[in-house]
Amino acid sequence: MDTFDQSAMPQPEGTSSRPKPSRPPKEEMTFGKTFVASMLGFIAGIVGITILSTILFTLLIASLATTETEPIVSENSVLVIPMKGSVPEFATGGSFGDILSEFSTITTRDYLKALEKAAADDNIKGIWLQMKGFAGSTSQIEALNRGLNEFKKSGKFIYATPDDDGYSEGEYILASCADSLFLPFSGAVELNGSYAILEYYKPLLDKLNIKPIMVRAGTYKSAVEPFTRETTSPEYAEVLTSIIDAQFGRVKQLVAEGRNLPVEQIDSIVANWPLLRAEPALRLGLVDRILYDDEIEDVFKVAANDGDTSKRLRTIELKKYIHQDGQADESDDDNVIALVYASGAITTGESNYNPNPIFGGDQLGSTSFVKEMRKAREDETVKGIVLRINSPGGGLSPSMMMWREVKLAAEKKPVIVSMANVAASGGYYIAAPAHEIIAEETTITGSIGVFALAFNVDGFYEKTLGINTQVYRSGPHADILSLMRDLTPEELAFAEAEIDTAYQQFLQVVADGRKMTPAQVDSVAQGRIWTGLQAKEIGLVDEIGGLELAFQRAAEKAGVENYSVAVYPKPKDKIEMILEMFDLESQSTTLDDILSMSDPKRVLDVRSVVTDALKEYSGVQARLVGFRCE
């Protein structure tokens, strides 16, 4: 509501403008007002104390979780490994619910370290692999499969069980390396092939009257397609089909090796059985026994106690075993291999978790990364560096800043890159200076290309929200970044020239790092993505393997045999995550907030959320869209 200074308003005729005689002030506070104010203060105090108590209680629980006494592993114990949800590469926090989850801070490396420890632990007789909604990527399955097979070399058993519904495809692929797979009568096995669902936002943008503006370098640079197309381009469809087929080919190989079945039989199952119930799964050799829960425990009791059924089953869960192991990486040793994590979408500034519902998730900040990489470079006890990349790329400028620090480190000491689920576009940019690049067969990498994306939201303001805008400028290009208009032909030509220059620079960076010519890099670049195995065949990757191979290579190049590992950045404990997430939760905006435009009071909030999100995604980028880091 507009307000006006009434003293400046003209007075009606016949009225005097003399000030009225002053009156004595009224009593400032009556008893009723005092009582109401006191009650409101009391209620506010109670609410404040309740909130503070809740926070302190949460922090206390988290503190106790990190300081509990180390459990003792009993003789003939079974290590219980629950596989639930996604497996993070690095414990960054995520949503508030993730922080409170006992699984949120157990990383891929934690699993592998625990398996290595258990293989040499005389008190551990075997592993109970419990599938409880595991949703890891194919490359994580490869890494965990390798760790489980190494454990089996100790002569100890691995038995796998699912929940009541049976094994999802990812769960079955991982479980297939077990000595025995059990299945309840109510369960089934899913082994029917891989698929990908791509989302295209152009119809939504059209409805919101938002117009994307795009410039790209690279025939296959598909990052802009979700905003500029309604369906997949033929070029990207070709690449995506190749990736899916290659990944599932690896999956079939893992299952065939684990179950000692010919690949042809796996092909037949995939083609003819969308879902296998318990009895067909047993008959086709996918599982070993159909058992009820009480029977499963008896099987573990017999296996752990060498057939003595009179003894009880002793178990220790992975989270407690990790604590018992200590999992300590800090060391005063003179020979250290630094493990530097680069996980999340590349952005400028500090690493954090972005709660934005459109482009949110883990953010890999250039400032944070450079600081940690520099620590590893300047520490004289660090003899080599393993750079673990799990990033689809992001902003080009921060990618260049990070590349510079990796290059400086590589000039001083061995730097080995270990690629996780995805190390593409900007994620590959920062890998280029390394002495060696190691990836899983199914890692998504490459995507060497650059694009610029912006949005014209003038129609969104005017037609969708009902807000008229008028721009005043001091020069013809002053409002080029305003998101309120299209580019002029002159500006578009300038943008295309800038993108081409950035692409040529990207090619040169890769050429220098991989000992290739820019033309050779261009022939495998153009924004195309590759699996790790395909990338090895074209010279973008040196070896196929995981973190263990990267450490081996770093130690060899550094000339050390015995070494400790230091992690950069130091993982946050749950107290730090909780304190951080209280702030994030207060800032987060849900999708309902964005779409609730029927309430006029929400219009300005919607305007800010949408515009800020689009600005965040605008600019020159080296990014692969459609692959999240989990």
Write the layout of secondary structure elements.
Elements: H1 31-67, E1 77-85, H2 96-100, H3 108-120, E2 124-134, H4 138-152, E3 157-161, E4 166-167, H5 169-175, E5 180-183, E6 188-189, H6 202-208, E7 211-217, H7 225-228, H8 234-259, H9 263-272, E8 276-277, H10 278-283, E9 289-290, H11 293-304, E10 314-317, H12 318-325, E11 336-343, E12 345-347, E13 352-354, E14 361-365, H13 366-378, E15 382-391, E16 393-395, H14 396-410, E17 415-424, H15 426-429, E18 436-439, E19 444-446, E20 450-456, H16 458-465, H17 489-514, H18 518-524, E21 529-531, H19 532-537, E22 543-544, H20 547-558, E23 564-568, H21 574-587, H22 591-595, H23 603-617, E24 619-623
Helix pairs in contact: 3-4, 3-12, 4-5, 8-9, 13-14, 17-18
DSSP E strands, number: 24
- What best-fitting shape do the alpha-carbon axes yield? globular
CATH superfamily of the largest domain: 2-enoyl-CoA Hydratase, Chain A, domain 1
Helical content band = 40-55%
Measured by DSSP, the beta-strand proportion falls in 15-25%
Oligomerization state = single chain
What class would the helix/strand composition place it in? alpha/beta
Distance between the termini: 48 Å
Q: Count the DSSP helices.
A: 23
Largest pleated sheet = 8 strands, mixed
- Rg, Cα atoms, Å: 30 Å
The CATH top-level class label of the largest domain: Alpha Beta
Q: Poorly predicted ranges (pLDDT <50, ≥5 residues)?
A: 1-39, 63-69, 93-103, 582-591, 593-597
